[in-house]
Structures are given as C-alpha cells and as structure tokens.
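A.,

Following up on our hallway conversation. Structure tokens first:
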C-alpha cells in the first residue's frame, strides 16, 4: 500500500509541476505561430554557424522557459525558419540560461558558501554543452536534412509540395510565375485568438501524452533508486558520484526552477557531482526523452543524448580535478 501511495505522490508531483509550464509553452507557441513572420528570426542571425548557434543558446534570455514547456516553443521556432542547430542549442541551454533558474540556483546555494560559483559553473557548462551539441547537429543536418525531423516539425518552406497545404502550394506557384503573391485579408482579433487557441490546444495535447508517460516512468524509477542510495554511493565511491547524480537527474524529472534545492540538499556531495545533476537534468530526463519523439527522429535523439551525456560527464569531471588540484574542498559550508 505504501508503495502505491509513493508512486501516486511522485507521479502527481511530476505531472502538476510540469503542467503549468506546458500550458505556458503551448500559449507562447500559439502566439509565435500567429504573429511571428516566416523567416523573421533568421534575418538577424549571422551566416556563420558558430555565432548563430551561440545566439540560439542565449535565446533563453529572450524566451525564458523551463524544459517542460520549451519543446513546444522550440518546435514553433523551428517551423518559423530558425535553423535546427540553433533550435537544439536553445532547447538545451534555455532551461538553464533563464533568469529565474539562475536566481533560484543562487538562492539554493547562498547559505552553503558556494552560491556564485554554482551559478557561474551551471550557466557556463550549460552554454558550452548546448553550443557543442548544436555544432554536431549542424553537421548531421548537412548530411541528412529533414530526415532528422518528424513531419510536424519540418519547416513549411522545406516540405515537399505534395504535403503542403493547398493555399501554400498555390502561393508558391504564384510567386514563381508572377513574382508576387496576392495580399491576404487582414485577420480580425477573433480570428487571431481562434488560431492561437487552436495551435496551443494541438501542441498541448501532443506533448501532454508523453509528459504523462514520462511521469509514470519517473514514479516507477523512484521506487527503486532513492536519494539515500545515491548519497551512500557518492560518499563511499567519490568517482562514481558524477554518473550517480547524472542517473538521478534523468530519473527524477525535476523542473529546472526547483532542482537546485534538491541538489543543495546533498551537503556531503562534491560540487562537481551537484553540477552534473544541475546541468544534465534540464537537458535530458525520462519525460524529455519521450517528448523529443514528437520533434526528432531516432537518429537525432541518439546524437543529442550521446553528445550531452559525454560532455556533462567530461566537463564536470574536469571541474572535479580543478578543485582537487587547487586544494578546494568543493563542499558546502555545513559539510566542511
């Protein structure tokens, strides 16, 4: 009976923690679809891949969303012409390079004596992982193109004519033949609200199904992997602390606006292990893996997962060695 209650509690906690952000993300996606002109963002992006991907990674400062709602916004930006590499960089870094998330990280570690360094390291590593992954995705896009995306995520300009809406196909033919398109009648406010509502509802239903399934898996996983077990493993085998906390980040499915308080509760953990938890969690967990299937094909999901996991492990391990080489403890004040 206790196991069933624990399962229901974890399931409802993950679901209701994420639900407001899914709703917000769907509404933002609806507004973007209705008001953001096609190719508007790409006009302001540099032609070179590296600076454009770096700008994509910083879009979280402009469109601040947690990982629960960022996917629907990212998909709409992708369909509006933002390059896939920039979208992936935004999807990975956005939930970290978010003013609310960075502030919550500082608050969580403020009384531990490592607040500023945790904020700086989390933001810096999150940005680095997102940019490098974006560059890898850029290479994949050059090789495979739209084969990396599901049909609902392919930008309309890249869709084959046979699958375009009739109006879009006729408009393209008119542009080729006459060099112009017929002006569209101005939409009323009620038409715009109706379009926003329809888009938001479609995206909400599309993503929520996989959020529910992810919440079920997270609740099941928590029955077998507890915080106490991870803490004991970390204290007994310090070099297993980083992968242990990475595994916990994937299984717990926490929101990026609250995960810093969970990480701060592990006072006996080295800062590098906490950092692995804080960087990987917003980029990759059970619910996000399932939600990715609504945008990406299996090949691209495998590329993103591999790049993110390897980088987070390598960078946080490097942080551990830097702390060790300089004689820094990497522990909170209460554990020193």
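Then the amino acids I'd put at each of the 336 positions:
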């Amino acid at each position: 009976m206790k196991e069933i209650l624990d399962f229901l509690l974890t399931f409802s906690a993950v679901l209701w923690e994420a639900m407001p952000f899914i709703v917000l993300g769907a509404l933002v996606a609806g507004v973007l679809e209705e008001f953001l002109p096609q190719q508007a963002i790409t006009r302001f992006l540099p032609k070179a891949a590296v600076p454009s991907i770096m700008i994509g990674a910083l879009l979280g400062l402009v469109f601040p969303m947690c990982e629960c709602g960022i996917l629907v916004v990212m998909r709409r930006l992708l369909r509006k012409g933002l390059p896939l590499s920039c979208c992936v960089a935004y999807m990975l870094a956005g939930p970290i390079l978010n003013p609310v998330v960075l502030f919550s990280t500082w608050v969580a570690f403020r009384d531990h004596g490592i607040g500023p360094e945790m904020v700086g390291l989390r933001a810096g590593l999150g940005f680095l992982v997102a940019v490098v992954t974006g560059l890898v995705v850029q290479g994949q896009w050059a090789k495979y193109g739209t084969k990396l995306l599901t049909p609902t995520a392919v930008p309309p300009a890249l869709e084959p004519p046979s699958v375009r809406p009739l109006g879009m196909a006729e408009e393209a033919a008119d542009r080729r033949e006459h060099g112009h398109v017929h002006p569209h009648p101005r939409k009323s406010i009620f038409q715009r609200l109706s379009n926003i509502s329809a888009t938001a509802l479609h995206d909400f239903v599309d993503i929520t199904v996989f959020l529910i399934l992810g919440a079920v898996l997270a609740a099941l996983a928590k029955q077998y992997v507890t915080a106490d077990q991870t803490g004991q493993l970390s204290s007994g085998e310090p070099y297993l602390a980083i992968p242990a906390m990475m595994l916990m980040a994937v299984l717990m499915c926490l929101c990026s606006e609250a995960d810093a308080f969970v990480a701060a509760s592990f006072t006996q953990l080295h800062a590098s292990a906490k950092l692995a938890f804080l960087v990987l969690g917003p980029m990759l967990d059970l619910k996000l893996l399932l939600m990715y299937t609504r945008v990406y094909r299996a090949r691209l999901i495998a590329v993103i997962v591999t790049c993110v996991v390897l980088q987070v492990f390598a960078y946080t391990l490097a942080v551990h060695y830097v702390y060790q080489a300089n004689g820094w403890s990497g522990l909170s004040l209460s554990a020193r």
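Residues 163-182 have pLDDT under 50 and may be disordered. Curious whether your intuition agrees with the design.

B.
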